[in-house]
Amino acid sequence: MSPLELTQNEMKIGVITRRDFDFNTAFCDSNSGFAFYGIGQLRSGNNANGPAYGLKIKNRGVLGVLLDMNEGSITFGSNGRSFGVAFKDSKL
Q: Is the CA virtual torsion 79, 6, 87, 16 positive or negative?
């Protein structure tokens, strides 16, 4: 693989429901953080493990995040393809 086919860093994208958190750790290490991890996993309240979800993301294309605050859910997707609901939580 060429360097352009891989992300330069492991990417986590999502939301956190608190304003005060430790900026020295990933936002999704806490129970108030909800993220898609670019290696094809979810993270919330754990910095090492998460369920498999979606696809591994490379540094091309479009990554979508749908936060439905009425339903309290987050869905992620890539290049127009939804991965399905990732999290459903009343905090959202």
A: negative
Count of other CB atoms within 10 angstroms of residue 53: 16
Report residue 49 CA to chain centroid gap: 13
Instruction: Please tell me the distance from the alpha carbon of residue 52 to that of residue 32, in angstroms, as a whole number.
Output: 20
**This prediction's pTM:** 0.81
pLDDT tier at 1, thresholds 50, 70, 90: very low
Our count of domains for the chain comes to 1
54: which 2 tokens?
């979606």
Full domain range(s) for residue 47: 3-88
Tokens of 39: 């290696």
